[in-house]
Amino acid sequence: MTTAYLIDAVRSPVGKRGGSLSGVHSADLGAHVLRALIERTGVDPANIDDVIFGCTDTIGSQAGNIARSALLVAGFPEHVPGVTIDRQCGSSQQAVHFAAQAVMSGTNDLVIAGGVQNMSAIPISSAMAVGEQFGFTTPFAESPGWNERFGDQEISQFRASEMIAEHWDVTREEMEAFALESHHRAIAAADAGYFDNEIAPFNGLARDEGPRPDTSLERMANLQTLNPGGRITAAVASQISDASSAVLVASEAAVQKYGLKSRARIHHISVRGADPAWMLTAPIPATKYALEKAGLTIDDIDLFEVNEAFASVVLAWMKETGADHSKVNVNGGGIALGHPIGATGTRLMTTLLNELERRGGRYGLQTMCEGGGLANVTIIERL
């Protein structure tokens, strides 16, 4: 089995809801990182075997196979194929897994994996809202088979985040302190230029719009909880955002043939599931499974990127895995930087790769909770 190498990674700045990228068509937003990746690597787009993009709520400007639309807008030759996948929040991380599997199997030599999401233009759960026109309000709750297995209970990320906070005894104050640290880390990283190598400026924007320098524990404490009597507020949840991101995955043969420089290799890929009602807990068993399969321990990992869908998710994950917070989301996470769902997976990988290089680390582990109770885990090794 051949090795899958990461040649380069790039992302757009992350725009806030209604911000600088909100009016950009999703095909143009996706095309931006494809052009940037080609420009950075010098690869002829005619040699790309496939473009795999993650995207959710694929309606409107994101409908009709956005991966194919974006690559055509980017000027790629018409013979280059594209496919759009939906593993909810982990869509573009799964795109990397599919790209790596294609390379490792010998099927492909050069694959671009990435994702795009304009959540300002296409609000979260828009596809479900469209379904109401046809008499179905959710993809599961009205299914007799679903109700027979899981009962008539609310399936919601907000309910799940509250359940996690209660089960792992994560207080509101702990979550707010974690959220504040996410903003502080993101702002410090941007000010130090740590994101400069990974961001391709676009539409007049060169810096992520999400981090809030004026936020404070006092301001967070004044926010109402999402549910009466609960612990979760908007301050401890990821931001609605617009962005795109992409990585180039190559085989050893392609590296040699085209004279490419590999920045890292894919050391491990896996995905596991957990209770869909709890929804956001899967990163815990998925991480333990991945480390065991890879023959590594939590202490072998130099850096972690764990998507900050909610502060309770990451705090519970750290409690269960024993990961040191000083190694987790060191440049901030989704609470500060935003969570453009389809693009987040390769956004995290782009940041992880650059930070491993900056620190001289060897292994980086990335995971994220996903709708349906799923979690991808990717371990990369810096070269």
TrEMBL record:
Q: State the InterPro entries in the record.
A: Thiolase (IPR002155), Thiolase-like (IPR016039), Thiolase_C (IPR020617), Thiolase_CS (IPR020613), Thiolase_N (IPR020616)
Among Pfam families, the record links this protein to:
Thiolase_C (PF02803), Thiolase_N (PF00108)
Q: Where is the Thiolase C-terminal domain?
A: 261-382
Name of the protein described by the UniProt record: Acetyl-CoA C-acetyltransferase
Family the UniProt entry places it in = Belongs to the thiolase-like superfamily. Thiolase family.
Keyword Mitochondrion applies? no
- Top EC class, one word: transferase
Show the active-site residues: C89 (acyl-thioester intermediate), H339 (proton acceptor), C369 (proton acceptor)
Q: What is its EC number?
A: 2.3.1.9
Q: Carries keyword Protease?
A: no
Q: Which organism is it from?
A: Leucobacter exalbidus
Concerning SUPFAM superfamilies, the annotation shows: Thiolase-like
PROSITE patterns of this UniProt entry? THIOLASE_2
Q: Which GO terms describe its molecular function?
A: acetyl-CoA C-acetyltransferase activity
Keywords assigned by UniProt, alphabetized = Acyltransferase, Transferase
The record places domain Thiolase N-terminal at 5-252
